[in-house]
């Protein structure tokens, strides 16, 4: 009865969905445990590309029960758009379950997100503007509305109306326009009716399934360094993507978890603000030639917002910290093929500050912004990794990079990404 967690080890978009898709073959349930539609999880199957925001990536398999766990914040309009788009492409969402304990996102959360970001001027977090932070704030303030409340239509409508009125005062204080309370109440009345058949006590269902021998996969969104506690605060999201968050966000216990797969891109990307020590930028802050190559070859544009991702070399200080914080049992190193044409590849092995090598990962973004990366330089392999069927078929210089990661981080690299498509992955025997 194994439970596997898949967690991002960097700043998101590591290729989690592709690995989840691969692992879904041997799992009966795939459960999102935090975040919301700020996530953009891409699975490529032949000519078909699926960009998922809320529906768990395992949905593409008929044998998988996709579950939106209690730790997720759910935007119902997005969820139904996604479900309709999937079903129109022949992917059934009939098995989807949504936790009654999950919190709902409302239009005032998005308005609040936009106004707060605008109010920060040059000091923006660079959020996805999906209302994620305000929705989690309401959950923490104990004024959130949970999915399970849709079962009583009258009480639900009253609560939505009351909260919408209260939030209009908050929005006014932030300089925003009031929202149309009755229009929101009507919209959510309809959405509540539509979501009701999917709502379940997923905590009990997951435990029952475990007892019946299920293999459960917990799908992380965002990543370790976007975690509200362990990330580069305040340039983080508002949930706990780390593997510990998978327990709180699903109701499974720490001893249920048997495997933690950390997803690491073979270089680093970040969308939004905050320090990125290995960033490949010129003095003008724009990507330099190599940074540009990573953007172009790796198609580093956000799935959700279309924003260009910032790029830099692989950072093993981050991976060592991610290994500690998440109890990683293994690493999947993705997008190694993006480096195919590089003459040489750099990997940051340490941070130097004021002439000293730092022990451990800095606990403050100000310190992280001041560190100087120490690099190991490896020769490139100058050949295509695509189509390699086995680890030993990879170019020797590519294997040397994988070995360096494994030795330096102290965690086995069990999978290597060699292209965007479903089959483009070498699983190490
Ligand atoms: P996630 O948020 O971690 O699931 O990652 P995203 O889907 O946002 O971004 C990863 C992007 O890289 C997607 O466009 C994937 O199709 C693509 N991708 C995933 N793994 C690989 C790989 O090994 N090689 C290449 N070239 N692309 C990959
Ligand atoms: P996946 O699951 C990359 C970033 C935003 C911003 C910060 C806070 O696809 O890896 P938020 O809207 O969450 O309040 O924004 O977090 N961010 C992501 N970056 N991948 C994601 O998800 C992200 N989700 C949020 O860009 O910097
Ligand atoms: Mg993504």
Walk me through the structure.
Helix content is 32%, strand content 21%. The protein has 12 helices and 19 strands. It has helices at 16-24, 76-88, 107-119, 132-140, 153-173, 181-195, 202-211, 243-248, 289-298, 316-326, 365-370, 396-409; strands at 3-8, 29-32, 41-45, 48-52, 65-68, 73-74, 97-99, 103-104, 199-200, 216-219, 257-265, 267-270, 310-315, 330-334, 344-353, 356-357, 372-379, 413-417, 425-427. The strands form 4 sheets. It has a 10-stranded mixed sheet, sandwiched between helices. Helix 3 packs across helix 4. The model has no long low-confidence stretch (mean pLDDT 97). Bound molecules: guanosine-5'-diphosphate, 6-O-phosphoryl inosine monophosphate and magnesium ion (MG). Guanosine-5'-diphosphate binds next to helix 1 and strand 3.
């Amino acid at each position: 009865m194994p439970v596997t967690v898949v967690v991002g080890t960097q700043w998101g978009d590591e290729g989690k969905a592709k690995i989840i898709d691969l692992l879904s073959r041997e799992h009966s349930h795939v459960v999102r445990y935090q975040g919301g539609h700020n996530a953009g999880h891409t699975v490529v199957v032949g000519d078909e590309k699926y960009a998922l925001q809320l529906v768990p990536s395992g949905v593409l398999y008929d044998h998988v029960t996709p579950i939106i766990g209690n730790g997720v914040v759910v935007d119902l309009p997005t969820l139904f758009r996604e479900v309709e788009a999937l079903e129109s492409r022949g992917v059934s969402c009939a098995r989807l379950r949504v936790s009654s304990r999950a919190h709902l996102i409302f239009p005032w959360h998005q308005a609040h997100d936009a106004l707060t970001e605008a109010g920060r001027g040059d000091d923006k977090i660079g959020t996805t503007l999906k209302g994620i932070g305000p929705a989690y704030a309401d959950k923490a303030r104990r004024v959130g509305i949970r999915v399970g409340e849709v079962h009583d239509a009258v009480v639900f409508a009253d609560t939505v109306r009351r909260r919408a009125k209260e939030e209009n005062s908050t929005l006014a204080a932030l300089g925003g326009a009031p929202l149309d309370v009755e229009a929101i109440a009507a919209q959510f009345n309809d959405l509540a009716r539509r979501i009701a058949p999917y709502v379940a006590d997923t905590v009990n269902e997951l435990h029952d399934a475990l007892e019946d021998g299920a293999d459960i996969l917990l799908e992380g969104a965002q990543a370790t360094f976007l975690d509200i506690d362990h990330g580069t605060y305040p340039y983080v999201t508002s949930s706990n993507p780390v593997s510990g968050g998978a327990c709180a966000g699903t109701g499974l216990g720490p001893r249920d978890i048997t495997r933690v797969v950390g997803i690491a891109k073979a270089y680093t990307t970040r969308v939004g603000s905050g320090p990125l020590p290995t960033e490949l930028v010129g003095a003008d802050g724009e990507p330099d030639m190599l940074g540009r190559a990573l953007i172009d070859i790796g198609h580093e544009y956000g799935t959700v917002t279309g924003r260009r991702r910032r790029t830099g070399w692989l950072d093993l200080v981050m991976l060592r910290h991610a290994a500690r914080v998440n109890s990683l049992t293994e690493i999947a190193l993705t997008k190694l093929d993006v480096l195919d044409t590089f003459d040489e590849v750099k990997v940051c092995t340490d941070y130097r500050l004021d002439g000293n090598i730092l022990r451990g990962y800095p606990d403050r973004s100000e310190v992280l912004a001041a560190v100087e990366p120490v690099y190991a330089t490896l020769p490139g392999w100058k050949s295509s990794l695509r189509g390699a069927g086995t680890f030993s078929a990879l170019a020797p210089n590519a294997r040397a990079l994988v070995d360096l990661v494994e030795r330096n981080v102290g965690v086995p690299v069990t999978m290597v990404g060699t292209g965007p498509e479903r089959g483009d992955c070498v699983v190490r025997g």
